[in-house]
């Protein structure tokens, strides 16, 4: 796809995202108070959301990063999830919160949560900024969610288009000009 022949349409503004992230931070701070919280951020897509979310937490938190295989330049998941970089931390006794940019088929999140559950964590939950429930291939519902969105390919705020545009501070939809 050639981005020059596309229309950008803002789906979520910086202010929308800021407001919701603040609410999630407050909710998580209450629910994880007096727990040993470890946030596991899935790279690359969630690096911006994670950075903003953890700064809204008023409780102690450890932060780890994990890289799984992603869509690359395409728009469809291969259905096969690979761990490219696992976390090295011993999770025994920790309450793990996996943070991702978007849940689409759900394959990535289900795989990662099952993988981390085998590391002796006290609990494993997830928080995603965006959810496209219409595209689900496995049974998973985000424990904490920013926004439910329609079945459209979204870009910005960490989400890439051909590995570009992750730095755009809002979320936008790319569509064909003649649509
Ligand atoms: P899932 O395993 O749930 O199908 O997909 C998870 C990953 O696919 C996300 O972390 C994200 O990297 C990528 N992805 C899914 N939907 C979109 C989308 O609409 N836009 C972009 N840029 N990436 C997406």
UniProtKB/TrEMBL annotation:
* Keywords, comma-separated and alphabetical: Cytoplasm, Glycosyltransferase, Magnesium, Metal-binding, Nucleotide-binding, Purine salvage, Transferase
What EC class does the entry list?
transferase
Q: What's the protein here called?
A: Hypoxanthine phosphoribosyltransferase
Q: Which residues cross the membrane?
A: none
| Places the protein is found | Cytoplasm
Q: Which pathway features in its UniProt record? A: Purine metabolism; IMP biosynthesis via salvage pathway; IMP from hypoxanthine: step 1/1; Purine metabolism; GMP biosynthesis via salvage pathway; GMP from guanine: step 1/1
What region holds the Phosphoribosyltransferase domain?
Answer: 8-161
A GO BP term here is: purine ribonucleoside salvage
């Amino acid at each position: 796809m050639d981005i020059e022949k596309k229309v950008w349409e803002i789906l979520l503004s910086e202010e929308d995202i800021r407001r919701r992230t603040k609410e999630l931070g407050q909710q998580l701070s209450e629910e994880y108070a007096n727990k040993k919280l470890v946030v596991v951020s899935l790279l690359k897509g969630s690096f911006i959301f994670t950075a903003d979310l953890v700064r809204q937490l008023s409780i102690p938190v450890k932060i780890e990063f994990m890289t799984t295989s992603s869509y690359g330049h395409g728009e469809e998941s291969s259905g096969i999830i690979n761990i490219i970089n696992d976390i090295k931390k011993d999770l025994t006794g920790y309450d793990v919160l996996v943070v991702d940019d978007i849940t689409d088929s759900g394959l990535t999140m289900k795989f990662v949560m099952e993988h981390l559950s085998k590391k002796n964590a006290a609990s494993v939950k997830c928080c995603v900024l965006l959810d496209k429930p219409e595209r689900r291939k496995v049974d998973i519902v985000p424990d904490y969610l920013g926004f439910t969105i329609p079945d459209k390919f979204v870009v910005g705020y960490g989400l890439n288009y051909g590995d570009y545009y992750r730095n755009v501070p809002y979320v936008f939809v790319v569509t064909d000009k003649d649509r």
